[in-house]
Amino acid sequence: MTPFRLARTAVFAAVCLGLGAAAHMLGGATVPAEAGVGAFALAFAAAYPLAGRERSLAVILPLLAGLQVLLHLMFSLSHAVLPPDGPLTRTTWPTTCTLGSYRVSAC
Length: 107
Known about the structure:
Elements: H1 5-26, H2 33-47, H3 57-81, E1 96-99, E2 102-105
Antiparallel strand pairs: 1-2
């Protein structure tokens, strides 16, 4: 086991979760915290076997795309099971942010 295996896996899982949650929320939906934790665990479990060494984009991109589809499905199905008023809902995130002198709206 390489010393960077867990770090590579955690970074990959965090990027997957961030991309999936951001896309889902920009689409107007919410992401309950329980679904976010489950999504991180799913991405971590999928990436761990491949994180033993550095991989090329030919391996990383299909895994990322496949996980995005699974995360989208997971977030969509979580609305039928979990309450949408958790800490990661879209209404509790700031709707505008400042990038330098520019204001960006997320709505």
